[in-house]
Specification:
This protein has strands at 8-12, 18-22, 37-44, 50-53, 59-74, 77-84, 87-91, 97-112, 117-120. It is mainly β and 121 residues long. The protein has one domain (8-120): Jelly Rolls (Sandwich). Strands 1, 2, 3, 5, 6, 7 and 8 form a seven-stranded antiparallel β-sheet that branches. It has a two-stranded antiparallel sheet with strand order 4-9. This is Cupin. It comes from Pseudoduganella chitinolytica.
Length: 121
């Protein structure tokens, strides 16, 4: 299976199956369509315009290239996790987070997509 992870997501289900899912319109699908683990890649040249939170599981974020400061709301305070060049962060389940991009970046995400919430920055 060859794919472009920026335009095609991979959904890993609890039974061990891997399914290709078109990125276009994925987040508009009905609740439950994002069950299992979702693997995606995105390029960022600017700060994220919003905060997000994943209630169904932790999120693994791997910086492939670039520079990003992740802001995590933990215990009523904002914690900054700085990633430069490459590196990773695990965002705990239910934690609001956003990213400030300090250099054009590419990131790989592994998360449970179901129930993802967003709010303005």
């Amino acid at each position: 299976m060859t794919l472009d992870p920026q335009s095609t997501y991979v959904q890993l289900t609890d039974d061990g199956a891997a399914t290709e899912v078109a990125a276009a319109g994925f987040w508009d699908l009905p609740e439950g369509a994002g069950e299992g683990w979702l693997v995606t890649e995105f390029a960022f040249a600017e700060d994220w315009p919003n905060w997000e939170m994943h209630p169904s599981g932790d999120e693994f974020v791997y910086l492939l290239a670039g520079a990003v400061d992740f802001l995590l709301e933990l215990d009523g305070a904002v914690r900054v996790v700085t990633l430069r060049g490459s590196g990773a962060v695990v965002v705990p389940r239910g934690t609001w987070h956003t990213a400030k991009v300090t250099a054009p970046s590419r990131m790989l995400f592994v998360t449970r997509g179901a129930g993802t919430q967003q709010r303005p920055d």
